[in-house]
Please model this.
Amino acid sequence: MSALSDSASPLYEKVKDFVLANIGSGKWAQNARLPSENDLVNSLGVSRMTVHRALRELTSEGHLRRVQGVGTFVAPPKAQSTLIEVSNIINEIRDRGGKHRAGVILLERVEHPTAAIIDAFEFDRVKPVDHSLVVHFENDVPVQLEERYVNPALVPHYLDQDFTSIATLEYLQRCTPLTEVEHLISAVPAGPEQARLLQMPERDSCLVLHRKTWTGATVATVNTFTHVGSRYSLGSRYRPTHKPA
Amino acid sequence: MSALSDSASPLYEKVKDFVLANIGSGKWAQNARLPSENDLVNSLGVSRMTVHRALRELTSEGHLRRVQGVGTFVAPPKAQSTLIEVSNIINEIRDRGGKHRAGVILLERVEHPTAAIIDAFEFDRVKPVDHSLVVHFENDVPVQLEERYVNPALVPHYLDQDFTSIATLEYLQRCTPLTEVEHLISAVPAGPEQARLLQMPERDSCLVLHRKTWTGATVATVNTFTHVGSRYSLGSRYRPTHKPA
DNA sequence: GAGTGAAACATGTATATACATGCCATGTCA
DNA sequence: TGACATGGCATGTATATACATGTTTCACTC
Model:
């Protein structure tokens, strides 16, 4: 009566698979109540701690909902909102097997930023920020215009970095341990400057990713990644129940 | 020598907090090796199972990396790739406090789909699919054009649904338990048809979200959500380390 | 009939124990 | 000096036991 698969995986994984199979087949419908831990102990022939671990992990993965003293229930599917992964352009190009090249357009300390930048950094008075503007090429075709404003209080030598390599990103990360990120994806027509730098027709569509990061309570970086719409898209594939191979 | 906070939270949570505090303060740097489980047992005065659970959960949350027989290490920050949440338009409008209205443009059973659709559904021969085209309005301004192809083998009465309410989505979800999703975000200029339905100038930028879902190994739905670039953007805010309240 | 208390049952946590599995350094033997 | 065996140590899993905590039910009392 074990009902557990006989592969080499650990017992608690088999219990998880058993539960997921019953959910997937529809035998245990949405919001249905599962057998109690003790029931599963008796029917599956494993200890309660093992069952408990399996159910606890399935709960933290969003498959189950547990209420102390009441029972375990099949969680409603989390399909309507799904996650999309955003990577950085250098790794992305490299993962595709393409050749990456970065062209530095601008690299400056801005002593008197615009009101919009001061506002974005949540400064209470005028403070200098570092500003970089880099074009990323994939196989010598421009794909991304990366504009970044950095808080010099957190990143001492940002402008001294080597902007053609990924080391800049790692330096940034080391200086600004991430506590919060804000993303905004939008589609806008290319302005004259963007069209020139990205070698695309003016007013053609761009996919723009805004990204703002915090370290503690202070704004660390404000980024704008502009992509040529006809050459770039953001994608992800997601398996809610499957495990990675 | 407990070094653990004295709040009311469970012991394993205190151990997790203790570890996170040491990482956050920089005392344990990136890739540094943590004390072994037995060391923590001795210094914190809890059992090894409790330490083990804390370290296991921190590993699954991405804070640590563990190698059997070797040790436990501080994981590199997972900042470069971040997640963006995509919701559905009806909830989104409602959450903003706006008024939602849906206009059904088309509702049909397609007996002979185009080659592109057959390919997208991974059909081995010509099979009928259901097709819907709906415009979503926020305060009577069109914001999204929703085109959906549905596999009738999985969703028996898709065309009979009430397309002006969110019940359609729930019916879809019930018929097609999600096993896999694929997303693709791109920016494209509006074509004549899209410009007309979305009441926007032709060739203006659109933010397009493609979404393809599987149930088991069969393709369940193929969706295209087209948004007016100047009226819509996708956003998210993310706290990597903080716990939900 | 309403309220109360206790039992029964559910999940949650903590521990001790045992063994499995994987890696590495050390030492021995050729 | 090199190859190999082995012991030590690290994490990984499984179990039995105990108690904590929260919910429901049901019988008993007023």
